[in-house]
Amino acid sequence: MPRGSLLTRDGTILVVIDVQEKLFAKVKEREKIASNICRLIRFAGLLGVPVMMTEQYPKGLGPTIPEIRKLTSEIRPVEKVEFSCLASQEFRRRLDEAEARNLILTGIEAHICVAQTAIEALADGYRVYVVQDAVSSRKLEDKDGEDEGRGSRDSYD
Questions:
Q1: What is the pLDDT of residue 156?
Q2: What is residue 28's predicted lDDT score, i.e. its pLDDT?
Q3: What CATH number has the domain spanning 12-148?
Q4: Mapped to the 3 state alphabet, what secondary structure does 19-30 carry?
Q5: Is the pLDDT of residue 41 over 60?
């Protein structure tokens, strides 16, 4: 896809990263973040864009928050113990199955799992879009730190 091309639904997937009960309870701006992620999930459904979810060590951090589970009850989250979603073979398998080349990333924490997923996805040739008002961290400065490496660009490619 040429640089600057508009994002289309073909080859695109929405990835909801680690929005789990125990960690999310400590996240800044959690009501706004949960609302925006739910809005993205509903919009993806309207457009026919597939949605994938991950859970980081669910035995310790709990399940995905109820607001999101209500909208995604048919989706089985990819359970992982790695920070980058792409370190999970199951995650990679599902991306291949969906023929995804464009990743729209949402979730927590912005400076760890979201950032490492974005970095690894870029290295693997994916186009990456991080939705700024649908990612957060326990500390706002950690979220802002994720922004610094990106500059003013709206997408990574």
A1: 42
A2: 82
A3: 3.40.50.850
A4: CEHHHHCCCCCH
A5: yes
The residue annotated as part of the active site, out of 38, 85, 113, 143, is 113
Known active-site residue 113: yes
Contacts of 27 (CB under 8 A, 6+ apart): 33, 108, 109, 136, 137, 138
Output the six-digit token pair for 50: 């597939």
Task: Return contacts of 112-118, CB within 8 angstroms, 24+ apart.
Answer: 112/83, 112/137, 113/17, 113/18, 113/54, 113/56, 113/83, 113/84, 113/85, 114/17, 114/146, 115/146, 115/149, 116/83, 116/84, 117/15, 117/17, 117/83, 117/84, 117/85, 117/86, 118/156
- Does 157 qualify as catalytic in the annotation? no
Tens-place pLDDT, residues 116-157: 999 999 999 999 999 999 999 875 544 454 444 443 344 444
Residue ranges of the domains in the chain?
A: 12-148
Given the residues 18, 38, 85, 143, select the one marked as catalytic.
Answer: 18
Asked whether the beta carbons of 51 and 44 are under 8 A apart, the reply is yes
Looking at residue 3, its amino acid is: R
Residue range 26-43: mean pLDDT, rounded: 95
Catalytic residue among 38, 80, 85, 143: 80
User: pTM (2 decimals)?
Assistant: 0.86
